[in-house]
Amino acid sequence: MPPQKILISGAGIAGSVTAYFLGRAGFSVTVLERNPALRTAGQGIDMEGPAIPIIQKMGVEELINEKTTKEKGVAFVDESNISFATFDVGDKGTDIGKNGSGRVWLSLADKKHTGFTSAIEIMRGDLCNIFYTAANAFPNVKFIFNTSITSVQRTSSSITITTSAGKQETYDILIAADGFRSKTRQLILETNDSEAFIQSQNCWVAYFSIPRKPQDFPRSRGYNAVGGRFIMIRPKDDQVSSGYLVVSKDEPSLRKVQRKSMAEQKAALAELFADAGWEATRVIAGMKDTEDFYLQDVAKIQLGGRGWSKGRCAMVGDAAYCSFTGTGTTLAILGGYMLAGEILQSPDQPEVAFKAYEDKLAGYVKKAQSAPTGGPQLFVPQTRLGVWMIRTLFWLVYWSGITRWVGGFKMPKFDLPEYPFDRRSE
Which SUPFAM superfamilies does UniProt cross-reference here (predicted)? Predict the structure, then answer.
C-alpha cells in the first residue's frame, strides 16, 4: 500500500513548499514546528531561476508581488553617507510597471537579476506566511506548533516518532526541513554532534527591524567599516526598515553568546559596532528596542557521502544543503517541489523517490553553493586598505557600467520536471 502519512519537521520555506505539493497530491501531511508560531524574523530574501515557475504553479505570484519591499537597488556609501556606487534593479532592462490597482507590479515570468538586488525582494516572514497559508488551505495538511521530534524509531515499513509533548505517532515518511542546525537531521543520521556537517564561513549576520527614516527608501544602503564590519539598512515597509550587522571573522564574543539570550547577543553586537561610524549609533539603538532580532553564523551544509536521506527519512532545504551564496531560498523552494514530486512518482518506494530527488538535484545544488574561498572576507575586509580597495572596486564597477551588460549573479539553468500533483488527488 502506498505511503499515505507524511511527517515534515519545520514550517519554514522548504517545509511549507513540500507540504503544499504533497497536500495537493492528496497525501496526509503533518507539519511540526518547534516555535509557538511562524518565525517572522529574518532578512530580506530573493528568488531566482527555477523558483519562479514553482511559485506560479502554487498560484501565489500576486500575493508575493503585493509583499515585495519595492527596493529599487543598493547604494554603497562612505562615513558621510555619500554614495559612491549605486546598482539598481532594471539597469539591464527589467520591466517595472504598475498593475490596474496602481501598485508596482513585477511580472515573475520576466524577472532579470542585475547588479546586487533581485527584482523579487521580500521579507522572509512574509514569504513563509504566504507558503504556510497556501499549504494549510488543504484539508489533508495539518500544522502543529510548539512541538518538535525527540526520538525516531524506524522499520522497513514505517517511522515512529516521539514528540516533545510525549506522544508517539507512526508515519510512512519523515522529512527534515528544520534548518541548517536541524535536530531532526541529527536523529535521522544518528549523530549526537550538533555541529556535524556545518561548514562555518567565519562570518556572522544579525537581522532586525529599526524605525524607518526618509533616507531608507527606495534603495538599500551598505557601509563597510574597518575591522571586518558591514552595516546595511534596507527598505521593509512604511513604518520600519531592516537593519543588518555583519562581522566577517570568527568573532569570539559572538561565539560566546551564540546560545545565550537575545539581550546578551545584542549587547555583544553593540560593543563591536560602537565605533563603526556612519549610522551605527542609530542602528544599534533600533536593535536594542526590537524583538524582531535574529543572529546567525554564516555556514553551508554538505552531507557528502551520507546523502540527503536514510531509509524512509529525507532532508530538504537548509537541513540538507544550506547555502550562503544568496541561493538558499531558491534551493529550498526547488527542493520542496522536487522532493514532493519524486515521492508522488514512487509513493510505495520512498528510497527510490529519495534517490531520484538527490540524483536530479545534487549537481545543481553544488553549482549554487559554489563561491570563492573567503567570500565574506573579500567583501567585508578587515583593514583600512582593504576597505579602500573594496570601495574602489565597487566604484569602478559602477562607473564602468559593466552590470548593464553582464548583469549580476544568475542561478544556474535547471530543467524543471513536471509532476502530476493534481491527477493523484482526483
Answer: FAD/NAD(P)-binding domain
Fold of 5-70+113-197+301-372+417-425: FAD/NAD(P)-binding domain (3.50.50)
pLDDT 10s digits, 5-53: 999 999 999 999 999 999 999 999 999 999 999 987 667 788 888 999 9
What is residue 194's DSSP assignment?
A: T
Q: Which tens digit of pLDDT belongs to each residue from 386-409?
A: 999 999 999 999 998 776 554 555
Q: How many CA atoms lie within 13 A of 322 on its CB side?
A: 22
Give the DSSP H or E segment for 161.
strand 159-163
Buried b (16+ CB within 10 A) or exposed e, 126-157: bbbbbbbebbbebebbebeeebbbeebebeee
Global pTM value: 0.87
Mean pLDDT value across residues 324-351: 93
Set of cell numbers at residue 166: 510525549
Q: Where are the domains of the chain?
A: 5-70+113-197+301-372+417-425
∠ CA 115-86-331, nearest 5°, is 30
